[in-house]
Write a structure and sequence with these properties.
Blueprint (H helix, E strand, L loop, with lengths): L1 H19 L6 E5 L9 H10 L4 E4 L4 H7 L5 E6 L4 H5 L2 H13 L6 E7 L3 H4 L7 H14 L7 E3 L1 E3 L3 E2 L8 E2 L4 H14 L3 E4 L2 H7 L6 H4 L10 E2 L6 E2 L2 H15 L7 E6 L15 H16 L14 E3 L48 E4 L5 H12 L21 H15 L13 E4 L45 H16 L1
Parallel strand pairs: 1-2, 1-13, 2-3, 3-4, 4-5, 6-9, 9-12, 12-13
Antiparallel strand pairs: 7-8, 10-11, 14-15
Helix pairs in contact: 1-15, 2-3, 5-7, 13-14
Length: about 500
């Protein structure tokens, strides 16, 4: 029995390490639920997969949503809602139960990477500020006890309003009245390797500046050198609000002698609609410009003027419009999609690859995922050309799309034809995880793909099976994103247990 426990522990450790992964630069999305009709967790997961969204932040730890995320490999930040801080911040036992129920019960099948403790507590619930550190310490104790602390980090998202005198960034400092919380908080983040979570909203900075901040500066639009903001103390040039706020956080931490805690932007975005008279710049064009430029900026690992080339992991606010949110008209319209999964506007990400291609015009394509298992690709290709009713005659020898004669290329043609033949509906570019949406046109030579000229090339109509599943039951993985090597090791370990 001792040998069995050892091998299972080794298997779990290998699987968990493969699940978590380390990305550096990435874009994630927040998923709020202030909607009159919340999509089912399975629908949300299907949309995430179709958009190749690999990082999300939840505002709670809903068990149904976590179950839907199992085996997807999607990296998840779960949250302790503000109304649960009192219980967790006052009781080690309550924190342990919370971790057992919301973390240990799901990990590693759900790739939980962090716990966000509350949301903007210091600025919106100052009376609850003394609960932050006890809650974080109790949760950390529970993670350590469950041997999960190496995989899951704990932090708390802050409003950028806690940073005072934020320009020039080199003069920024945190509100000194918050020192009793922030000083131990930063030491905690240092000791655990967790990031400072920061919500950055150039839209609000622009709106409140009464014309001082130019719109182009808020939207990442190119500025001539004489229009760039220059920090007179460091001579660093700032071309956008986002970088200036992130660097202000770095300088504010340095003011407290903390220089090794990274910044993670847990919320940022731009509303695509608002009150026409009071919020004229809350519109689809500006939302497209901001988020498209943001994605390119983050994914290119541009970094900030203070830390060039240093990744700033960033989460867009948000996946869906939330029609029941209170406040100004724009509060309801920050989503990339409406409640039905229809894009609120089209991101223009030409050349950006497979990330967040929420454009359902003829500018998106469905392609075979790079590095996908060839047997799974072949099974999906067989399904598309058979039950999926894709006309695959152009893939035969002598026809325009025969070359290159590889499973990857033929699958890309078939996947894309099916995707466009089904009207680019949510979930029609998945094929058991071996397909992704891209804005890069895969057409080559005489082989023109559906989406470039509108051709769909379906033989009649066909409804997609659940998640475009193939008939191969073996295509489902037990743990999301576990490599074939890890699975081989796992099988070997289990066999050795049986033999022993």
């Amino acid at each position: 029995m001792r040998k069995l426990s050892f091998f299972l522990l080794l298997l779990l450790t290998a699987a968990a390490a493969a699940v978590r992964g380390d990305d550096g630069a990435y874009i994630g999305v927040n998923i709020g639920t202030a909607m009159s009709s919340v999509p089912a967790p399975t629908q949300i997961t299907a949309l995430l997969r179709s958009q190749n969204i690999r990082h999300i932040r939840l505002y709670d730890a809903d068990p149904a949503m976590l179950s839907a995320l199992a085996n997807t490999g999607i990296r998840v930040i779960i949250s302790v809602p503000n109304d649960q801080l009192l219980g967790i911040g006052n009781s080690n036992a309550t924190a342990a139960k919370w971790v057992a129920r919301n973390v240990a019960a799901h990990f590693p099948m759900v790739n939980i990477t962090a716990i966000a403790v509350g949301s903007e507590v210091l600025s919106t619930l100052p009376n609850a500020a003394p609960l932050i550190m006890p809650a974080m310490r109790y949760l950390q104790n529970a993670l350590v006890a469950a041997a999960l602390d190496r995989y899951i980090k704990i932090s708390t998202p802050h409003s950028s309003s806690i940073i005072l005198d934020s320009f020039p960034p080199s003069q920024a400092f945190f509100n000194r009245s918050l020192d009793p919380v922030l000083v131990p908080l930063l030491k905690f983040l240092q000791s655990t390797g967790a990031p400072l979570m920061l919500n950055v909203y150039p839209y609000y900075d622009y709106m409140r500046s009464n014309g001082v901040i130019p719109l182009d500066y808020a939207l990442f639009r190119p500025l001539p050198p004489n229009k760039e903001a220059v920090d007179a103390n460091t001579l660093l040039h700032y071309t956008n609000v986002f970088d200036a706020v992130v660097d202000a956080a770095y300088f504010a931490m340095a003011y407290l002698n903390v220089t090794n805690v990274p910044v993670m932007v847990t919320e940022t975005g731009w509303p695509h609609k608002g009150d026409a008279s009071a919020e004229p710049d809350a519109n689809a064009d500006n939302a497209d410009t901001y988020n498209s430029n943001l994605i390119r900026h983050v994914m290119n690992v541009t970094g900030t003027p203070k830390h060039p080339g240093v990744a700033v992991p960033t989460y867009i606010y948000e996946l869906y419009d939330e029609d029941t949110r209170p406040g100004t008209a724009s509060e309801k319209y920050w989503g990339l999609f409406d409640m039905n999964g229809v894009p609120a506007y089209a991101l223009h990400l030409t050349g950006s690859g497979v990330l967040l291609a929420n454009d359902t015009t003829n500018q998106t394509f469905c392609v075979a995922r790079e590095g996908a298992d060839e047997k799974m690709l072949q099974a999906a290709l067989d399904w598309a050309c058979g039950p999926g009713k894709v006309d695959c005659s152009v893939l035969t020898q002598g026809q325009p799309c025969y070359d290159p004669d590889t499973v990857q290329d033929h699958a890309t043609y078939a996947f894309n034809a099916y995707y466009h033949g089904m009207g680019m509906a949510s979930g029609t570019c998945y094929f058991s995880g071996v397909a992704v949406i891209t804005t890069t046109d895969p057409s080559h030579g005489p082989c023109v793909y559906g989406g470039k000229n509108g051709s769909a090339l379906l033989n009649g109509t066909s409804m997609a099976p659940s998640s475009n599943s193939t008939t191969e039951s073996g295509s489902r993985r037990g743990v999301g994103d576990v490599s074939s090597f890890v699975l081989t090791v796992a099988i070997a370990l289990l066999l050795s247990v049986v033999l022993l």
